[in-house]
Amino acid sequence: MMKKRTISLFLVLFLFMGMLPAQALPSVPVVTEPVYLGSEAEYQTTFETMFDENGLRKVFVAFNSKDGVLYQKHGLVNKYGNFVAQPIYDEIQLHTAYDLAVLGRGSSILPQYFIGGYTQAVRDGKMGLLNTRGEEVIPCQYDYVGLPSEGMCRVLNRIGNTDNYYLGYWNLEQNREVVAPNKYITFAKDPMIGNYATSQRKPEGDYYAYNDFIEGYAMVFTSMKQVNLDDVYQATIIDKNGKDVLGKTYMVVRPAGESDDFSFSTYPQKGPYLSFQENLTIKDREYYAKNTSRTKSKDTFTGYATGLVSPEGVLIKPTYTQGIFVKGACSMLSDKLNLRF
């Protein structure tokens, strides 16, 4: 009985409070200025970590289209809330192999949007290159754009529905496309030369990729095919104006197997020099199987002989079967026979 009476008293009190005029109720303070849960210094420290080393932050803005679909566009703002790059991009993101520790930021919590002052951006499905001022230094008109190497950027367009691409180049200093992506080809968008242990980093901090400019020149392919699981290319070398400095193509073999792939030290091109191959056949060669001296055999072997060419012509004829080292360049071979002659 007492319990029912208590509940009734609470109901009467609740109804009575609801009939009171608004001014009779205790007022709730209205906050018009932000309240920081900490010191001003702590707030500034937290605020700073929201922006990259250039004082920029990537943000997105959502747009509701007429058909009811919500679209998200990306832009870059500075610490004052001003757009440096307008929110018109499908994506603003680095597409390259890099290591924050190498950039001196291994322990940093700052976001990483740029390397060497540039980043890739996609607008309306096509990629271009932005600088830290939000300018499209390469217009968004390609399927892929690589980060600069010696001021030159690879620009790629996909070949039909394949995984291969036409390769061209944009010269940032000249602010123009010097090689249109319609003649040379490449097998991937951004294949790093070697791996993190065997490659080499550019001065900007990312790693060299196939067909990047190295010492003023780049190796480019006119065709590629597979022969006995090896990737076989026809290659030449171009300068920063897109000129073919060799005047003809030469065979370059990329051996099968990840462990036999090119490292930076064995990459076939350095400057205007190209290490190339020709097919080699050794007939009726007598040999012993490795680790035994009792069994002697005779057979015919096929493989590759390596030479060296430059704009002056063939410097070393393709005679050597274990590669040629010149200025750090060597050609890897695929005929790794478990034999001794």
In brief:
It is built from two helices and 19 strands.
Explain the overall architecture.
The structure is a single chain. The protein is mainly β and 341 residues long. It has two domains: 169 residues, no CATH class; 125 residues, no CATH class. It is built from two helices and 19 strands. The N terminus and C terminus are likely disordered.
Please render the helix and strand layout as text.
Layout: H1 2-19, H2 40-48, E1 57-64, E2 70-77, E3 83-89, E4 91-92, E5 118-123, E6 126-131, E7 136-142, E8 144-145, E9 152-158, E10 165-171, E11 176-186, E12 218-227, E13 230-238, E14 250-254, E15 269-270, E16 273-289, E17 296-310, E18 313-320, E19 339-340
Antiparallel strand pairs: 1-2, 2-3, 4-5, 5-6, 6-7, 8-9, 9-10, 10-11, 12-13, 13-14, 15-16, 16-17, 16-19, 17-18
Structural class of the secondary structure composition? mainly beta
Average pLDDT number:
81
Cα-based radius of gyration, to the nearest Å: 32 Å
In percent, how much strand structure appears in the residues?
Answer: 35-45%
Question: Can you tag this structure with a few keywords?
Answer:
single chain, 341 residues, mainly beta, 2 domains, four-stranded antiparallel beta sheet, 2 helices, 41% strand, disordered N terminus
